[in-house]
Amino acid sequence: MKKTVSVLGSTGSIGTQSLEVCEKHGLGVTALAAHSSVKLLAEQARKFRPEYIGIYNEEKYTELKSALSDMNVKIVCGMEGLCEIAALPQTDIVLNSVVGMVGLLPTLTAIDAGKDIALANKETLVAGGELVMSEIAKKGIALYPVDSEHSAIFQCLQGNKRSQLSKVILTASGGPFFGKTYDELRSVTKEQALNHPNWDMGSKITIDSATLMNKGLEFIEAKWLFDLTPDQIEIVVHRQSVVHSAVEYDDFSVIAQLGVPDMKIPIQYALLYPDRKPCPTGRLSLTDYGKLTFEKPDFETFRCLSTAIEAIKRGGAYPCLVNSANEEAVRAFLNDEIRFIEIGEIVSAVLDRFEPSQINCYDDVMKADKAAREYVRAAVSER
Ligand code: MG
Predict the structure, then answer these.
(1) Which of 115, 122, 144, 215 is spaced 20 to 30 Å from 244 by Cα?
(2) By three-state DSSP, how is residue 134 classified?
(3) Is there a contact between 252 and 263 (Cβ–Cβ < 8 Å)?
């Protein structure tokens, strides 16, 4: 039996590529949800004929309803709608590719409903890692990573003993500003920051890749997904994005996963697991690359990276605070309110600014989220 999938965030980069994978392999699409892109969402609805369509931005509800007035589809909206879709009994797997913290409640709802999850929303695990992982353990559902690095690690774990893992090697492209000094980063423009050398992604993650916050978030994500200690995770800059990550075992054998830099490979592995079938992407030709390089990251220049790692070492609410502060700082940068270099300045100040506190429930996450955003908004308006 082919699996049925619900896609949260269907109009984004991961969402649209997920639908390509569903189409290629004939997977059923039960539901689609997007933030606010009515036009693309309506097109997807006509093509994939889901039972449910969700729109997060409630102001777009009427527009969507009239765009699909001739279709027999249930239309839901807001966070409530996203959560209704996340819990549908007729869905086998919920692919969550929502951007940001907004994805946390739908993830928790899907787990509670006993759905398997393909997770592309890394902020979910950064902000609520402890909560999410303990709920997953209680429900016994499967969590498939969609992030390319974490999919690589997941693939390298197959057929090996988890107890004999010694560390993971998380590769990083280094982003568009690898090799630049802190001073050189002062003059970076928005256009430069939005121009990633290897991956074509949404604007939030593209900025996170330029600040290396993305790798910091992935460090935290890896810690939760694979139950690692921070000193078991090594970050290596690999400019070509061909080695997507690797696992070292107790015998010092290192197993890596390689492929062209195309998200459809990890998306497909999550949706078809454990099957491997031809993916709608190109083959990897190692000789086309000729040379693969590996270097150390510059933790001092890229403050977001060191801040995220320090946050998970401290634990409690710090990862959530840092993530929310980053979301807000990136928003301010994209709105031309702050310079590129200020993202790291603002985010790193969170570690000194907030006293340690614990995350025991969803409300604790929301409280930390609100406090971090208020701090950033105040810091931005002072500049
Ligand atoms: Mg990644």
Answers:
(1) 115
(2) helix
(3) no
